[in-house]
Amino acid sequence: MFTLTTTVMVAVVDGASESKAQVALFNAGVYREGLGQLKQALKDRERYLEIWPASKDSETVALSVVDLHERMNQYGKAVAFLDQRARDQERDPSKFLAAQARMLRIEDQKQKNPRAVARREKVILDYYDKLYRRQKDALEPPAKEAVARAMYTKNEEQFVYYSRQKLHWGKGGDPVKEFRDSIKQKAKSLDEINRLYTNVVALGAPEPAICSLRKIGLAYENMADSVANAPMLRSLPPEAQEELKNQLEQQAQPIREKAADHFAAAVTKSREFAIRSECATKSLQVLRTTYRPAQYPPLLEELANPRQDTSVQPPAPQLLTQVQPAVPGVVLKGTSAGLPPGHPMVAREPSATGGSARQDETSDLRPGQRPTDASTPAVVPASAQNQKKKPSAETEPEDVRQ
Which CATH architecture has domain 1-72? Predict the structure, then answer.
């Protein structure tokens, strides 16, 4: 039925009005994609763009063409189609950069081509730098996402240079001056790192913004560690070196607070955008373990369950081990897996001391029953008292009550 319907829809294109023909061809592609006829659906989409390249649905149809190429693992054709689409829309910054963003994702995640990714990011940044301020402000979210990702990747080179800067003392007559100069130089690089990644955050792209905040936190953390662990001046006596180390540790403490603030900002930004990010997860982890464990305690569902750990197995019930020994590596499941240790399931036996035994185990009492001595008759349900006594095998037939 659906095949006939799609055939009729395509036939309408030849004789119906233009608006009905657009709807018919659009729906034909949708039905064929739903039926799994991807090649036929792709032909319908391409024919739609060929006949009506400037229609209101042309952008949606173009994106669906890319989706079909990806579903058929034709990543090269998808990139080629988007590249041509970007050239046709070069005067529209939002559409051009959105197409570049889609190509960047395919080349990075699907094709895994680092050289192509580097070339694509350079094209994005070169195009973005040529835009006027008002054009940059008017970019749509997909276009800003492409620019933010390219900026974030480019900033990595500056971050590596900053993290390798070391503090050192001078070898001349004034070693303290060179030490102060090295601190100023690293602080200047820290300001540049802060500026670069803040520009990425300002674009508002969720993932790059979260990771940029974490990078700023890592930069402050690196600065604090460099100050606190700075090399000691060998010419100083041990007492003076210890005093200098304490002073450097005090100076590093405010820098660590700034690092914690940016880690917390990354977590907050992740919650604001309601997305799960690896950068936010790492920021939250360092807050819990190092900086602010009281403010960021682990959630209940994140606590480890020892019985879910394959290396920690619950003890096997004693009754079962008496029947069959426990096999190493086999974890019992069901009600028997939850039995607490020290309470084996064994049958109760009457006391061998006679009638002076008392029932002290109150866990086996029924509602309303009190502990009794062994000489006291046990409580018998009324239903059991009313049951007729069955004749034994030695009873004579005439003694049996009819």
Answer: Alpha Horseshoe (1.25)
